[in-house]
Design a protein that fits this description.
Helix content: under 10%
Structural class: mainly beta
Distance between the termini: 30 Å
Shape: elongated
Number of strands: 10
Radius of gyration: 22 Å
Order of helices and strands: EEHEEEEHEEHEE
Largest sheet: 5 strands, antiparallel
Strand order of the largest sheet: 3-2-1-7-8
Number of domains: 2
Amino acid sequence: MKCYENRDNFRERVHTIQVTFQSGEYKGRIAYKIGGNVFGIDLLGFDLETLDEDIIKNLVVNDCDFSFDYENEVFSLELKNESGDSLLCEEDDYSLGNMVVALEIIDCKIVDSKNEEVAQMDNEPIIRTVDDLSRIVIPKEIRNQIGGIEAGTKLEITVTEDRSGILLNLIK
């Protein structure tokens, strides 16, 4: 992830969590989305019992054919080594938990008021030219990321301490 914006705790997000399983030299990965106003380590409290049928059905990464056999109450996955050889595993939640070697947040998107994901900005500078009336346009990408900026919105404008820039704060 290029940028993890975790300082604004007033906005909902959708995180993508990747789980890596390993047995010997064999590995496999799954990734799933989780929403809410939670960050960092609070998201990484991975519990296999929370992987319900909907989450498993909607995995965004599943390079190991991860599934759950409800009849036998076991997880099934096919791990691969670098040579492409396979290892088929059928494990209960305890044994599968022992195969987890990595948990990582691989993506984070802010959710707008319509519960749709808004693209995360890469914190790359956006250059705007001041017009003849000393106005600048706030780019749509920034307005979407912040949310709530439209015609008539009030912004507080302050100068940085070192006088090298300005700060805009949304007044709600």
